[in-house]
Write a structure and sequence with these properties.
There is one protein chain. The chain has 212 residues and is mainly α. The chain has one domain (3-195). Helices cover 67% and strands 0% of the residues. It has ten helices and no strands. The protein has helices spanning 3-14, 18-27, 41-48, 50-68, 83-101, 114-124, 126-143, 146-164, 170-186, 188-195.
Length: 212
């Protein structure tokens, strides 16, 4: 299949607004009108509760995983599993993340892309994904700050690739570094709230819905 068409499909796949769909179909609300205003798993947990949040988390991860997996449609042209194979996974997965951030199906108002990023990394190098997930969970358990957990796990990503797993694909390392910068950039407001100690802590119990 044509690479450009696959790239467009990866973006469209990422643009499927899981949080918006779950909120509107099952609860008749747009999660972007509540909490942080993001169309992602974290805000779904905050606004709708645990089970809807888990559903959205899985769906958002699946978008990144399936988008990266589109590379298998190119086996005729890319036999083997070398750098080129991984680089195409990075491109397709990255386009899905862009779709999640700026979804054409939801007025370009998406989430922060953490779950979709994790899904694509699982499809590319699952050990580093598991390590980052472990860091995220450990920090979340200790601080209850989802934003801080996401930021530190993202910063650890390129370090783990280079020093622990000793990956030598320069594009993969560059992608991991770019990911860390992207996560920090999309969490600027959260960082300010963390510094002023006004950031909301995670709570597994449903909360009263309040408008943005």
């Amino acid at each position: 299949m044509n690479l450009i068409l696959l790239g467009i499909f990866a973006y469209l796949l990422g643009s499927i607004p899981s949080a918006v769909i779950v909120g509107k179909v099952f609860y008749n609300i747009d999660v972007r009108d509540y909490g942080s205003g993001n169309a992602g798993a974290t805000n779904t947990f905050r606004v709708l509760g645990v089970w809807p949040g888990i559903v959205v988390l899985i769906l958002d991860m699946a978008k990144g995983c399936f988008a990266a997996g589109l590379v298998f449609l190119q086996t005729r042209y890319l036999p083997g599993y070398g750098y080129q194979w991984v680089n195409l996974k990075l491109i397709f997965g990255g386009l899905a993340v862009v779709g999640h951030l700026y979804p054409i199906f939801a007025g370009f108002r998406g989430g922060k892309g953490i779950a979709t990023l994790l899904g694509m990394v699982i499809a590319i190098h699952y050990l580093s994904a598991l390590a980052c997930a472990g860091i995220f969970i450990a920090i979340l358990m200790g601080t209850r700050y989802v934003s801080l957990s996401s930021i530190l796990a993202a910063i650890a990503f390129p370090i783990l690739l280079a020093l622990v797993f000793q990956k030598d694909n320069p594009y993969f390392i560059a992608f991991a570094i770019a990911t860390a910068f992207l996560v920090v950039a999309t969490h600027q407001k959260n960082i300010k709230r963390l510094l002023t100690r006004t950031e909301s802590k995670a709570n597994i119990l449903p909360k009263h819905r309040t408008k943005k």
